[in-house]
């Protein structure tokens, strides 16, 4: 087996593993498969962690994971698929970041690993054992990599930024309410 063949086989295995895991997580969010909570339950969770509206956020995250993961596994539209999955994982990592790095403590380790693998595949390309290769790389042009990654980074920054502002505002309102309650208790009003 030549080095080129080993590279293609390695990319295939990485695509299947990363894409398969992402697709499974996405179907949990979208359809409630594999013990997931579907759009309704995931939407409620999304609202609780600051992503609003919850159902829209759940749908976007589910499509980024299920769609991006499926396309990565197939090796089709690899730049867009990898970028979409990476964006979804960046949003997930933001939720887990306050818990530190390691997954066992609820940290962002898992989301970061999937996001980096998806980004790496978007950059490296799918290899010859892919639908992109079979179709003559119509959906896998060199210019598509920076375009897809930049667009996804911009949208992710906007979504995560809006979430963070929402959470900061809620935290300030809660602190003000607690201060009011303390003053009310102190002065008996």
Automatic annotation (TrEMBL):
Membrane-topology annotation of the record: Multi-pass membrane protein
UniProt-annotated stretches for the region Disordered: 170-189
Cellular component terms per the entry's GO annotation: plasma membrane
Keyword Nucleotidyltransferase on entry: no
Cellular localisation: Cell membrane
Residue ranges with Acidic residues bias: 174-189
Alphabetical UniProt keywords: Cell membrane, Membrane, Transmembrane, Transmembrane helix
Segments crossing the lipid bilayer: 143-162
Major localisation: membrane
Entry-linked Pfam families: DoxX (PF07681)
Family: Belongs to the DoxX family.
PANTHER family tied to this protein: INNER MEMBRANE PROTEIN YPHA-RELATED, OXIDOREDUCTASE CATD-RELATED
Protein name: RpiR family transcriptional regulator
């Amino acid at each position: 087996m030549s080095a080129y063949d080993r590279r293609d086989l390695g990319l295939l295995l990485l695509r299947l593993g990363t894409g398969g895991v992402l697709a499974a997580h996405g179907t949990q969010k979208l359809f409630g498969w594999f013990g997931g909570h579907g759009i309704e339950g995931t939407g409620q969770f999304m609202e609780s962690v600051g992503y609003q509206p919850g159902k829209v956020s759940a749908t976007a995250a589910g499509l980024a994971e299920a769609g991006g993961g499926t396309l990565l596994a197939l090796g089709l539209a690899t730049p867009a698929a990898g970028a979409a999955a990476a964006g979804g994982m960046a949003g997930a990592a933001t939720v887990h970041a306050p818990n530190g790095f390691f997954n066992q403590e609820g940290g962002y380790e898992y989301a970061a690993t999937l996001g980096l693998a998806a980004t790496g595949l978007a950059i490296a390309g799918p290899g010859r054992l892919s639908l992109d290769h079979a179709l003559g790389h119509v959906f896998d042009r060199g210019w598509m990599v920076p375009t897809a990654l930049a667009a996804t980074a911009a949208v992710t920054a906007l979504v995560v930024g809006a979430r963070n502002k929402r959470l900061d505002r809620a935290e300030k309102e809660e602190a003000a309410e607690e201060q009011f309650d303390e003053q009310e208790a102190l002065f008996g009003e």
